[in-house]
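Interim report to the steering committee. The following record documents the input for Tetratricopeptide repeat protein (298 residues).
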Amino acid sequence: MREDLIEQLETWHEEDEFEEIVDAITEIPEEERDYELISHLGRALNNLERYEEAVEQFLLIEEEGREDALWHYRIGLAYYYLKRYEDARRAFEHADRLEPDDEDTLEFLDLIKKKEEKAKAAAARAARSTAARNVSAADFWDDSHPAAEQYTMASPTDGLIASVEEELVFKLPPHYVHMMKQHNGGIPRKRLFVLGGTGSEEKESITISGILGIGREKKLSLCGSAGSRHIIEQGGYPEIGVVIATCPSDSEVVMLDYRESGNDGVPEVVHVDKADGYRITPLAPSFEAFVNGLQSEN
């Protein structure tokens, strides 16, 4: 009788009749279910994507499953799809120790490694972003500067942001938009950007005058009369993106460079020197990295 049931369970599994397996086993009183039956039940629940229930069943036979690679693999599978990646990793590592080089186990370990690396990178980016956003506008902007009024405007509405992006034909970086909603354009207290990093023996640098805000109201705004399009067209600058900051010299600008990212991607920040044959010098991989890299001039 029992052999017939096990054979039937295997047949249902091959035919993807997982509900039949669950129904058949749950009809058996709990105290009469052994390791093999509960293993079948847990596997069927996994296949039905009922992962919480699967974990509950596998934990009922945890002691018996300690030296069974398949038990560790199956509970690892449930943990993985529940996004409990640390638990899943431990389970798959144990399965690999018991049955080395199983392709499915190694594949899940690789997937978990990639997800953990991605999560760490995201956490690091979030921490950097939070730190940058925790710097108050008063700390970043020099509103007492005589020229500050030429750049600064009221916080842009979502409608204004959309219309400016449509006119420019480029999607503005999220960090830039966030900053402009807090303080729309102006002159930073720190305006020096060192090229090549602090380890460079010859510390060449560029200095900005101010950052253009989102709008049309001020001449020195993205779509103002002396804004990005005007600067590019009048100065003959390359059509690679958006002028985001002016420099003391009329022959230099800082631009968002969309050549690699595409118009809707995250642009790099570059310096363009008209006097040097429109030489393009990379500054930072993102606007956030650029503003975080600004230093005091003295």
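The chain has two domains: 2-121, 137-292. The committee is asked to note this result when reviewing the revised timeline.
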